[in-house]
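Board work, copied verbatim: AsmA protein
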Amino acid sequence: MEKFKKIILKILKWTGISLASILFLMFIIPILFPGTISEQVKIFANKHLAGKLDYKKTHLTFFRHFPSLTLSVDDLILYGSKPFQQDTLLTAKEVAVGINLKNLIFNREVKIDEIYVTDAYANVFVNTKGEANYNVYISEPSETPKDNTETGTSIKLDLIKFKNSHIKYVDHAAKILVDAKGLNYTGKGGLSEDIFDLQTNLDIDKVDFSLNRIYYAKQKKLHADLITRINTNALTFVLRKNELKVNDLPLKFTGFASILKDGYNLDIKAASEKTTIREMISALPPQYLDWAKDTKIEGNSDLYFNVKGRFSEPKNLKPRVKVRLLVKNGFISNGKAPVPMNNLNMDLNVDLPSLDTNQLAINLKKLSFDLGPNNNFLAYVSTKGLNEMNVNANIKGAVNLQTLQQTLGLKNIEIRGLMDTNIKANGIFSMDKKLFPKTNGYINLKDGFVKTKYYPNPIQNINLVANVINTDGTFKSLGVNLNPFRFDFEGNPVSVNADLQNTEDLLYKIKTKGVLNVGRIYKVFAKKGLDISGLIIANVSLNGRQSYATTGQYSKLDNKGTLILKNIKATTEYLPKSFYIKEGNFQFENEKMWFRKFNANYGKSDFALNGYLLNTINYFIERKGTLHGKFVMNSNYILVDEFMALKSGDNTNKSIELEYAKEENPKSSGVVIIPKNLDVSLDANAKRVDFKGLDLNHLKGNASVTNGQVYLKNTSFDIIGSRMNMDARYKDLSPLAANYDIALKVQDFNVQRAYKEIDMVRQMATAAKDVKGIVSLDYKLKGDLDKNMSPIYPSLEGGGIVNLRDVEVKNLKMLSAVGDNIGAKAFDNPDMKGVNIETHIKNNLIHIDKFTFKVSALRPTISGTTSFNGLLDLQVRVGLPPGGWIGIPVVVTGTQDNPKIKVFSKKGQGIVDALYNKKSHKLIREERRAAKKTRKEQRQDKEAQEQKAKNAEQQINKDLKKK
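↓ predict structure ↓
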């Protein structure tokens, strides 16, 4: 027993010493090595990160991620790579790296083998040009030989762990959004090896996924157990064992993904086999899940998904996506339903090659269900293509809508009526080729009724009889008969009768009559954004043939009636705000739709129109129809700024192009986008027009909108106290660029006022700050506008004449410097009255033609070149009395603020012009001072140019002989 006690005591003693030593080491090692670790991590970060890295403080400890020795960085912020240096890529409460203890103690080397990230937000972004913000890691060139003896920091990962993180991936080039919140991730494996298996455990509380703004997953719970083989040399990921669960829906993945220099290569297959319909519904958007809780759902389902191919924005390559959804023997019933939905079966196949909707193939092989005797539905629909769509469809069914509503347990809407349909179609649909599938069918709705919780009164007495027939697969034989379509809303009956034949040259008979409260109709369906009581009063009869209008046979048209709009709100995808039509009285008279009274507001701007539109029938019939018209427009105030596409406004239904442009350029206003389907002329009268702080008063002129361009002719307005005449053309190129031509004539405007009030004058004529008096201008310019609708000066081309009618020039630095060098103080106050100065602008340079003026008894003549950046290369000849026959040559170089004078010299120092890319709207090279060259260098340049010309001539002769 004594020996046993001694052994136990020794064991306890050494165990205690060992534990104490370990604890002592845990405390002492962070104290002994903090400088080594922190310094080497900083060196590593500076060497290998292209993005800026900031953090609050660091900790070296065993106790945050026991038992690993970790260097923890608190409140980390990592900024993106070019061109996103100002945008945050990653923030985290803590980023910790595990340090290999053996290497640290014995080799004093920092080897990182674990990474921990806590409470992180990663904002990964790819813009429309394919530029990404995540390229922050600078790898060593592959051809550089490894030095195994080098000491310092290296990464050899065995563990990655994310806790409570939020990762957002937005790819504007591919139109993809992934937003994962509450992400917890653990990845284990030999991450430092060239080829290794990564074991992954992933849980996400809420994940959203959308493609082209269509959400395929919204607030879904995700769990994944994955084993992925990763080849770091080829950046390839092979999915070996991959089990995924979206809410209650299990999915299994196989395949691979490869990261390429210009994109990625995919071949991934996913399947959810032998699941239930309820499990399938759990993957639907959240608004459907509450419905599913109170509904009895039975049946089986299978889902198959495959994405295969390369994605490369520069090479315009995109992968192919295939989806198949099977539903078998479905059963749906709500407790209050008189009968259940039985025999629900569906077989849906979707094929999208190259993510190209023009190649989209949808094959609904079967969709069928029944709601009791004589109450069933069966559909088969197959389409291929979009612009030219091959269609094969057979839809047949008779459904009691009230029974359908009760069976599905729809809570927010009450519907009634008997709907009967039988449609068969087979053939090609193409607007361009005037093809329409051979069709025969009808849709009948009797005693329809719609009421929602959003509005107390229903839309009722809905009756619709619609017949469609096409016998030969062309527009010529297509006939649509709508007789009648009637409904009542709040005591107001509305009826539409239509008979349409031969849509190749449409023969139409349309009658519509009734009063429709648009605002309240929208409230019935809880549509947001239309909060006003819009009213439409219609009594219209349209009778004629499409070609009667296009060929000028107006006497054969019988279009008549009135359409009245009041307090209507309208939006377009290219404007940030809504139009409010206070009142619109329209009258149809054969070929014309007259605007008898039209008053509208857009933001602070107001418009009153009188005139007519032509081709209104064609516009609504043809996909590429153009509206023609002529109007008189009167306005009290127009603020051009609020029409700029990226300005803030109440319109939430903007195009994806605008949304992406705004997200990528949050501080930009964009340019004004012009509709492409208008051919309209306007006699415009506006009391005041504001554009970027510039006031134009009493504007009158002729404006026209044609093919997406605006033309102004014989337009005049008051500006800075003078009347200006202008002809102009404007065209938007994208939401962020536009170009224009402009011809200006203005008599007698005040130079100082123009310099103070007009930015363009300050940029183009900096010398005007030293000029007082009255001048006239006759000038033509063309150029581009940037993403804030400001002139891009290197893009400017043009020229014209400035007449100095009555001016005073004092202490102009360039002239004063010339006077100081030749001993003529009179150059401080020259006589320039009546002088014409002709200039030409190109590539950010202003070329000045010779002009002469008086300085006391002297007659100076100036010509040469200046730049918008203030560089000078001017030749001055100071004519001496009598008559200026004998002159002193002077060269002025340097800058406007610091001119350099050479007397008795004719040779200046040239200015190399700027280079501007018209496609990208970017300045490639700024103008700069030409390099000084010796006579030998000049002679060599001349000989090289002559030889180049001689070689070109010889090549032309060779080409001619070959021919």
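The longest strand covers residues 153-171.
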